Amino acid sequence: MKGILLVTRAARLGxxxxxxxxxxxxxxxxxxxxxxxxxxSKAVILSFPPxxxxxxxxxxxxxxxxxxxxLWVSLPxxxxxxxxxxxxxLTLVIALKRYSVSGSDILRSYxxxxxxxxxxxxxxxxxxLFRALGLFGSFFAxxxxxxxxxxxxxxxxxxxxxxxxxxxxxxxxxxxxxxxxTVFRRVTLxxxxxxxxxxxxxxxxxxxxxxxxxxxxxxxxVTTVSMVIFGWSTKLYTPILAAASGVITFATFLFLIVLDxxxxxxxxxxxxxxx
Amino acid sequence: xxxxxxxxGVAFMTLISxxxxxxxxxxxxxxxxxxxYLSIFADRFxxxxxGNTLxxxxxxxxxxxxxxxxxxxxxxxxGLELTRRLVSSFIILLLFLNSAVRSVTWITILGSSGLIxxxxxxxxIIQHPVSxxxxxxxxxxxxxxxxxxxxxxxxxxxxxxxxxxxxxxxxxxxxxxxQVFRRVTLxxxxxxxIATGNLMFIVALTAFVSPAxxxxxxxxxxxxxxFYTATEAxxxxxxxxxxxxFTILTLAIVLIFGRITNRFLSKGMRMRA
Lengths: 275, 273
What we know:
The complex is a heterodimer. Chain A is mostly helical.
């Protein structure tokens, strides 16, 4: 009996130790890079423990024309792409819900089809299409491509949201004499608000973070902030990468706080975790 | 219109994959040919790339599942409210963090003046820095750490329904921790593990950022190969052919995994009945 107890305790300790190890594995790279972002100006290569102390790499980053140029493209791109994808998805989801005819299943799978093709392949396809159409290297081309990859997520989120809409409330409003537009504005819209916010935020973040497809579509002039970091990471290993990681991590942290305040972090995560 | 964009793009890519390569600005010829596809199968390096990608993805996804399981259990177990809250917030932060940043963080660990080399040099185990970046190991670590948050949350969302009551019941009936895990916890979470594992393999296979940054262009990986063929060699027909082949490969793996899971499920049902 004592032997079994001992084995049990050893097993529990082993599981705890392993869990701790995994958490360490997840945390240590981030901790290392964040501490390296405060390296002194004489540090020339990403290193841990960091060499020296200072804010000079943040200064270098924030005064870098590349980084500013990336932000200048990424922010409008994210907003435009996610608004477009939200509007198209909203129209589609309402149409699918309203007219549940035989073709609607096919239309739905068709709309979600970009999810099953590897993103790099979408990049190759878009590259050639834009070259053929003469759009390659334009901001407009980036918007079109980003709508392609954000829309499936918008559709999923809005579908999940519409499941929570009580159709009898809409019917009640109609019975009380409201026209279709009033029903949408006064009944449907308020009950899907959280889904609209979620769809917008997810579209924005997906667009901002995308690399696998965007890598094919950028030029030195029109490039996104993620691609600027990606470009640096393949040729220079100075702590400017650490400073960029610091800024991005901080921005992601702020975004999560906003997400938590608006729709709740658990609900938001469920949209990503279920695919 | 946006839907059509995707379809037209893929159709156009497939069309170009059957045209010969011509240097820019023309990019591709007008003749119909299968030479691009034949060159994938005739090229030793291309085949090696496919093999290497499959092996690295398999190793990465198995390790991802091994690492994700205890954390997912931690997230769904009662007790330790504060720890759980902290861990889950951290995982969610990682989930939304830019993928380039997530890969770059590994440079401070694996680089020539990174954590591992600092420790090994400090302990006098090695005299000169060993290069750990641009290796298969670096790529596997990068893919794992990118996919772990995703795997943990997916697993946790399914494990939530397993419930701890059955485990407590087994304990009351005199089972030890091993027996509880082997006879109750594992069989009940089997399906979640298989489903998540399948998805993680596909996500690893189609990963681009970690293999590109941590493989440094020297570790053969399908997505990275497609990228360099299209953007640096500017061989659009060949990259298109490789893309079509890669898409078919991915879809075939999805279908085969689906079949295996289904068979496994129906067998499990029969056994339990």
